[in-house]
Design brief:
Layout: E1 3-8, E2 26-27, E3 30-31, H1 32-42, E4 47-52, H2 57-63, E5 69-72, H3 77-86, E6 94-97, H4 107-118, E7 123-129, E8 134-137, E9 143-147, E10 153-155, E11 159-162, H5 163-172, H6 182-188, E12 194-197, H7 208-219
Parallel strand pairs: 1-4, 1-6, 4-5, 7-12
Antiparallel strand pairs: 2-3, 6-11, 7-10, 7-11, 8-9
Helix pairs in contact: 5-6
The structure holds cytidine-5'-monophosphate.
Cytidine-5'-monophosphate (C5P) binds near residues 11, 73, 74 and 100.
Length: about 220
C-alpha cells in the first residue's frame, strides 16, 4: 500500500485569535502544520500534499520540507481537501487526510488507520468515546432531549481511505458542498466508515486554551 498524506491547512484560525493562519502558529517553536506533516512522515507516509491559503504560499514553504507539495486551498475545508486530492501523486492507492490543527497526534494512531486500510477497510476514522452527558437544545437553549452517549463518538484525524473511494466520493459531491469531514463525504456516497481508537493527545487546536494545553504537553 502506498499512502499519500493530505493536510488541509488553509483555515484562517479566527477562533485562535492569532496574527497569522492557524497552521503557521508555533507550538514549541515549530509551526502547527509542520508537526502534522512530521507525524505523517514518522509514520511512513512520505508523500504529503498541504492545502494553504493562496496568499501564504511562501510562508508555508518556509516552514515545511522542500519536497512537500503545496496547493492553494479553498473557502471551506471540503474545497481545500478537494484541491489537494487533485494534486496527489498517481501512484498512491490510499489517502490519509490529517488536520494541520492536530499537532500532537501519536504515530500509533496513524498506524491503526493504516492497518485498517491494509486490512481492506474502504474508509476508517479514529474516534474517542463521549464522556459527558450529551443533550439536544432548542433555539432558546432549553434542553429537548438526552442522547445515548454509548453510541456516540468524537471523530479525529487522520482519516484513511482507499484512494478510488475518496476520489469517487468527491467527484459525486456537488461543487460548493461543505461537509464536516472526509468521512461525511464518503458516507454521502454510501461508503461504510469503520473506526479505530483515537487518542486524547490528538486533540484539535481551536481556541487559545487548546494551544496552552499543547504547550504544556510538549514541555513535560
Ligand atoms: O477550523 P477547523 O480547525 O475545524 O479546521 C480544520 C482543518 O481544516 C484545519 O487544519 C484548517 O486549516 C483546515 N481548513 C482548510 N481550508 C479551509 C478551512 C479549514 O484547509 N477553508
Amino acid at each position: 500500500m502506498h499512502a499519500v498524506g493530505i493536510v488541509p491547512a488553509a483555515g484562517s484560525g479566527l477562533r485562535l485569535g492569532a496574527d497569522r493562519p492557524k497552521a503557521l502558529v508555533p507550538l514549541a517553536g515549530r509551526a502547527l502544520v509542520r508537526w502534522s506533516v512530521d507525524t505523517l512522515r514518522a509514520s511512513g507516509v512520505g508523500d504529503v500534499v498541504v492545502a494553504v491559503p493562496g496568499d501564504e504560499l511562501a510562508a508555508f514553504a518556509a516552514v515545511l520540507p522542500a519536497d512537500v507539495r503545496l496547493v492553494v486551498g479553498g473557502a471551506t475545508r471540503t474545497a481545500s481537501v478537494r484541491a489537494a486530492l487533485a494534486a496527489a501523486p498517481e501512484a498512491a492507492d490510499a489517502v490519509l487526510v490529517h488536520d494541520a490543527a492536530r499537532p500532537l497526534t501519536p504515530t500509533d494512531v496513524v498506524a491503526r488507520v493504516l492497518g485498517a486500510l491494509a486490512g481492506g477497510a474502504p474508509a476508517v476514522v479514529p474516534v474517542l468515546p463521549v464522556v459527558d452527558a450529551t443533550v439536544s437544545v432548542d433555539g432558546d437553549g432549553v434542553v429537548t432531549g438526552a442522547l445515548p452517549r454509548e453510541t456516540l463518538r468524537r471523530v479525529q484525524t487522520p482519516q484513511g481511505f482507499a484512494r478510488p473511494v475518496l476520489a469517487d466520493a468527491y467527484d459525486r459531491l456537488p461543487p460548493g458542498a461543505e461537509l464536516a469531514d472526509d468521512a461525511a463525504v464518503v458516507r454521502a456516497a454510501g461508503v461504510p466508515v469503520s473506526t479505530v481508537a483515537g487518542d486524547e493527545r490528538s486533540a484539535k487546536v481551536t481556541v487559545p486554551h487548546d494551544l496552552a494545553l499543547a504547550e504544556l504537553a510538549v514541555a513535560r
